Amino acid sequence: MSSTELRRTALDATHRALGATMTDFAGWDMPLRYGSEREEHVAVRTRAGLFDLSHMGEITVTGPQAAELLNFALVGNIGSVKPGRARYTMICREDGGILDDLIVYRLGEAEAGSSHYMVVANASNAQVVLDALTERAAGFDAEVRDDRDAYALLAVQGPESPGILASLTDADLDGLKYYAGLPGTVAGVPALIARTGYTGEDGFELFVKPEHAVGLWEALTKAGEGAGLVPCGLSCRDTLRLEAGMPLYGNELSTALTPFDAGLGRVVKFEKEGDFVGRAALTEAAERAASQPPRVLVGLVAEGRRVPRAGYPVVAGGEVIGEVTSGAPSPTLGKPIAMAYVDPAYAAEGTEGVGVDIRGSHEPYEVVALPFYKRQK
Prior knowledge:
Elements: E1 7-8, H1 12-17, E2 21-25, E3 28-33, H2 37-46, E4 48-52, E5 57-63, H3 66-73, E6 86-92, E7 98-111, E8 114-121, H4 126-136, E9 143-146, E10 152-157, H5 161-166, E11 181-186, E12 189-194, E13 203-208, H6 213-223, E14 229-231, H7 234-243, H8 279-291, E15 296-302, E16 313-316, E17 319-330, E18 335-342, E19 354-358, E20 361-368
Parallel strand pairs: 1-3, 4-14
Antiparallel strand pairs: 2-3, 4-10, 5-8, 5-9, 6-7, 7-8, 10-13, 11-12, 12-13, 15-18, 15-20, 16-17, 16-19, 17-18, 19-20
Helix pairs in contact: 2-7
């Protein structure tokens, strides 16, 4: 795909003016880094970072039976989500394979007797999720709408983010819990202010109209000057989420895995009323996982300096016992780290004799519990 065919966010000119290195990500031309990805990573861990996440896929679901539709289409109990709150969940195929992991925000009533939800899908799966929700909406009094062009999404993440955002809004940030969202005004711009993120830090995601994105970016940049806020690209977002043990679709999650295979069976709510897509297959997957535990997602910390990459075999005693799903140097730990699915016998923290086959050389790794990093609250 040539660069002329890539989709561009409303902040494209801003990124280029800042000298960003751009990359093709899921058909979007996105900033990979502005300078040093390590410095951007450290800024988010210690101060604050500003991200353009406008490539994410927003899908609006409204109508009297919006909750019933989402309960049928997704594995979570969306009907129990209160207005102003959000939930992490998944959409699966009939065979239980994961199509995508999602955040669903309940935005209150669209009109009398009509619920209003926003489903946020990963950029690479947005069309797949939209198609699946549209197909699964048959028979429900609910509307599924593609709102990918209706929103720009900016995120301010890091310990200084509450103070930076508070200087630009009258919204009650202190009362805004993690995985909650409220409508408000930020720098004079109407926004959905959500206390969510993908970095392991406190932070906010701001959904605004695309025409307001540049002004909001500039206002956040100015407000963050004294707090050490820096613009951040997708590269440091990946190392931040890796340290925080957060799965990435296409690495830790795929259609080849059920939520139970991924160690995320907790998101499947069998107790909810009615049928849902994948229920029978997921019931079998849960029973199978109980009797024959699947490979376990663990953390690996290098004893040396060589960085493991996705797809590298994990070995022990001359046998392949797993596979790396994500790997990178960790700025916080100062060592290469990886997430990997390994046989249950090798999943315990401190298991010895485990290595990663890096181009024929078996490099020693320590097995650790996820996440690698947890912020002090």
